[in-house]
Automatic annotation (TrEMBL):
Family under the similarity heading: Belongs to the protein N5-glutamine methyltransferase family. PrmC subfamily.
Positions with a binding annotation for substrate: N190, P191, P192, Y193
Enzyme class: transferase
GO-annotated biological processes: methylation
Organism: Sediminicoccus rosea
Residues in Methyltransferase small domain copies: 106-210
Binding site for S-adenosyl-L-methionine: G124, T125, G126, T127, G128, D147, W176, N190
Stated name of the protein: Release factor glutamine methyltransferase
Function text: Methylates the class 1 translation termination release factors RF1/PrfA and RF2/PrfB on the glutamine residue of the universally conserved GGQ motif.
Keyword Flavoprotein: no
Amino acid sequence: MTCEPGESVGAFLCQAGQMLRAAAIENPRLEARLLLAHAMGSTTEALLRDPRAPVPPEAIPRFRAALAQRLARLPMARILGRAGFWTLDLEVAAETLIPRADSETLIEAALEAGIAPRRILDLGTGTGCLLLAALSEFPTAWGLGLDLRPEAAALAARNAARNGLNGRATFAAGDWAGAVAGRFDLILANPPYIERGAIDSLMPEVAVHEPATALDGGPDGLDAYRVILADLPRLLAPRGLAVLELGEGQGPAVAALAEAEGLAVMGLKADLGGVGRALILKLSEKPVGGRDSSV
């Protein structure tokens, strides 16, 4: 296909689409529209309405710079500075993992459980996506989000304000839940779960541009689960639930670790791709190691 010459919307979209396709980037036409709409301060719908409209001169260098970033495999969300998650619009930055649709499975699992949490804890909060999505669905709840990086906690706080939830959410920097006291009705976590040796084989958008601390789960991918699961018995309310995101095939291993800590597995919910993504846990009614973990 030959693109028409000129500086119209259609010409730029055609040229960019061909370049993105040659770089083996999926959905090249859609991505071209997103980049051009971003550079013009417009919408993709507006671009399609009038493909012969000229691109404003001041938008052309912005578009070319954004296209160059995407060809270098910088994630689209980082170029746009935002990402959608659940019903939220979230700011993203280099310090945090970009929210993904797979993680929405945790919110679906919590809703399907039929609970009405008053206190929610989000471990490794990143952008705050899980906590804020939960708060949007449980209007009487309050939540605490923790992240190892102060920059991530600050970003999550901005996202709470961006979505009108700042009055019900608190964010802080902390090493998992080591400094947290009290019990929570719902605990959410999307910990790093990629095996360290497999990170370099991931797509460049992830391996190169996502923060390593949000990916590296240690030699077997389970390091973070060991820390989190050891704390859950003291953090979960008697009728509370914990919902943890898993990597593909990790269900049996994480379930075994959970049961060894006095937790009972309530289920494993699959994402839209059929991957067991959300492990649902509660306190076990059976004593573990001579103590009753349910109280």
